[in-house]
Amino acid sequence: MSVQQQLITAEAFWAMPDPPDKRLELVHGVVRKKPLMGVQAGFAKGNLLTALGRFVKQHDLGLVLPGFGCVLRRNPDTVCAVGICFLAWEHVPEGELPDWFWEGPPTLAAEVVSFQDLANDV
Questions:
Q1: DSSP secondary structure letters along 65-120
Q2: Are 117 and 53 in contact (CB under 8 A)?
Q3: Regarding predicted confidence, which is higher, 21 or 49?
Q4: Which residue has better confidence, 107 or 93?
Q5: What is the CATH number for 62?
Q6: Of the candidates 14, 9, 31, which has an alpha carbon nearest to the alpha carbon of residue 22?
Q7: Domain containing 41: what range?
Q8: Which of 31, 33, 12 lies closest to 23, judged by CA?
């Protein structure tokens, strides 16, 4: 006898409390843990975020944002935790940015991985 796992939506995932020691993603309706970043990977991420942010601001190309969720699929929902992303102005709706996840993929996404990260976890 197999037990079917209850799938959740992006909205239910948003409402979940943040665990203090884990990063989470929603993959095809199932919550998955992501490993925390090590110091070297964090340093590399900071450098990339700073360089990309300066370039985008200098040329007024859009927004650069660290660590937020993008809804990439619906039914079942997938919410990817993006390490660093760039949103070109033409993809940003006029008015306020959403309070929750970004609907759809960013213009550019970058994920810094360390040598101990497994391909299935990235």
A1: EEEEEEEEETTTTEEEEEEEEEEEGGGSPSSPPPSS-EES--SEEE----TT--GG
A2: no
A3: 49
A4: 107
A5: 3.90.1570.10
A6: 31
A7: 10-121
A8: 33
Q: Are strands 102-103 and 62-73 parallel, antiparallel or unpaired?
A: parallel
Residue 1 lies in a domain: no
Give the span between the Cα atoms of 3 and 47, in whole angstroms: 45
Question: Residue 115 has what pLDDT?
Answer: 67
Residue with more model confidence, 35 or 109 = 109
Which residues contact residue 14 at a Cβ distance below 8 angstroms, ignoring those fewer than 6 apart? 69, 100, 101
Which residue(s) pair with 79 in the sheet? 26, 71
Helices (H) and strands (E) in the chain, counts: 2, 6
Q: Is residue 4 part of a domain?
A: no
Spatial separation of the C-alpha atoms in residues 36 and 23, rounded to whole Å: 7
- Distance (Å, whole) CA 86 – CA 76: 25
Instruction: Report whether 61 contacts 51 (CB < 8 A).
Output: no
